[in-house]
Amino acid sequence: MSARFACPQGFLDRLESFSQIGSTGDGGVDRVEASAANGQARRELAERMAAAGCEVRIDGIGNVFGLMKLAEQEAGQEAPWVFTGSHIDSQPKGGRLDGAYGVMAALEAATALKERLNGQKPRANLGVVAWTGEEGARFQPSLLGSSVHAGILPLEQALARRDGSGVSVADALDAIGFRGTDQAPRPAAYVELHVECGPELEQSGTRLGVFDRWWGAHKLELLFSGATAHTGPTPMVKRKDALLAAAEVITGLRRLADTFPGALHTSVGRLEVLPNSPNVVPDQAKLFLEIRSADASIMADAHSRLQDLIPYAAAIARVTHRIVRDEYRAPGAFAPGLRDLARATAADLGVTPQALETIAAHDAMPMARICPSVVVAVPSRDGLCHSPREWTEPADLELGVAWLGSMLERLVLEGPSVS
Q1: Which end of the chain is more exposed for a tag (fewer CB within 10 A), N or C?
Q2: Cis peptide before 394 (omega within 30 of 0)
Q3: Phi, psi (5° rounding) for residue 336?
Q4: CB count in 10 Å sphere of residue 250
Q5: Are 376 and 362 in contact (CB under 8 A)?
Q6: How far apart are CA 338 and CA 213, in angstroms?
Q7: Strand ranges (DSSP E) for 300-352?
Q8: pTM, entire model
Q9: Which neighbouring-strand residues pair with 333?
């Protein structure tokens, strides 16, 4: 191999330029999946991929692939593929680095790697990918595009998912021109670079981290149904207040997390109330709940307690309840070979990376079902993510690109069997 991999000059400027798409003016971005801004970002990405010499493909769920065929066929068989990337959709008030950094870094590293080959004979091809709907802000579940690619979620079921306004994934992708028909190869290895979205690296003063495993998540969509009434004259004992039941669950779920300190995270991140009028007792309240832990038994215990809490809350408010959506993602571990490779290449760059666990979800998790996968990270200031205040030091962003490039170089030249 040639000299140490370095971040391409001008990367930070190109990343900043991409961050202007959907900018909220305060350092953040609003590129919710299949919005106008998201469509603009997809077009910009496709143009950058084509300019880098990639074959651009869009599959049926809108995943964007930039494919570089680097290796020659042997005995008529196509060489294996190494994929790298992340996502470019965001939360409504998201950060400019979450997801997009991993995609931009992947394209920069792949482009630089192609130039570094200098007559060497790669054993693998390289693909850069931006997955559809990682954030789950508009369409649930999260990790939508990578779950379809991994065969976990059937395409037709994914396309039929609807947002809060009743718009389907299929119609939303059609509206921005990104429901494709292309087929993409199945990778033999997948590497994802991300900002940590946690405080561990900053607190330890470490510049790079390797996620060894991920926390599981149990996500529920819960609907309470009561009856509308005037908030003034209606006697308290006569009310069927759906929002009251929701409040009981929200506070009870928070107390549940304290039962397993440090080992269980709970949240209600979204609440939809109808008719949402100051003078009307709410007759509907829909909650988006989640339970997260690295321990499947703790998740099961918490879920069981939640099942007791829900009817208790409904009885207090004299309303009915129904689980609209129930999705479970088990805890798991990333590929040991890729984790070892990440540590070895970080050492080549003079850094000893820190072992981490990811509580946030990443597309590498469904990809781990079909190929060795790993997520590596650079620090997040104050651990912030999903916020306009999200920040990583520029030097660490550049180091992350060099690290990713070093990993990809090994995988492409030596073959993904190293993973």
Answers
A1: N
A2: no
A3: -60, -40
A4: 17
A5: no
A6: 12
A7: 320-329, 332-333
A8: 0.92
A9: 213
Question: Between helices 11-19 and 394-414, what is the axis angle to 10°?
Answer: 110
pLDDT by 10s per residue, the chain, length 419: 468 999 999 999 999 999 999 999 999 999 999 999 999 999 999 999 999 999 999 999 999 999 999 998 876 789 999 999 999 999 999 999 999 999 999 999 999 999 999 889 999 999 999 999 999 999 999 999 999 999 999 999 999 999 999 999 999 999 999 999 999 999 999 999 999 999 999 999 999 999 999 999 999 999 999 999 999 999 999 999 999 999 999 999 999 999 999 999 999 999 999 999 999 999 999 999 999 999 999 999 999 999 999 999 999 999 999 999 999 999 999 999 999 999 999 999 999 999 999 999 999 999 999 999 999 999 999 999 999 999 999 999 999 999 999 999 999 999 998 66
- 3-class SS at 325? strand
Q: Are 144 and 327 in contact (CB under 8 A)?
A: no
- In 3D, which of 418, 411, 369 has the Cα closest to residue 81? 411
Q: Beta strand 94-95 with 64-68: parallel, antiparallel or unpaired?
A: unpaired
Amino acid (1-letter code) at residue 335:
A
Listing DSSP states for 178-241 in one string gives -------PPPSEEEEEEE-SSSHHHHHT-S-EEEEEE-EEEEEEEEEE-B--BTTTS-GGG-B-
Tell me how far the alpha carbon of residue 406 is from its chain's centroid: 23
What distance in Å separates the CA atoms of residue 394 and residue 89, rounded to the nearest whole number?
Answer: 22
Residues 6/409, Cβ–Cβ less than 8 Å: no
φ, ψ of residue 411 to 5 degrees: the values are: -65, -40
User: DSSP assignment, residue 30?
Assistant: -
Q: For the chain, what percentages of helix, strand and coil (3-state, to nearest 5) are there?
A: 35, 25, 40
**Region of 318 on the Ramachandran plot (φ > 0 left; ψ -120 to 50 alpha; else beta):** left
Q: Pseudo-torsion of CA 98, 104, 110, 116, nearest 10°?
A: -120
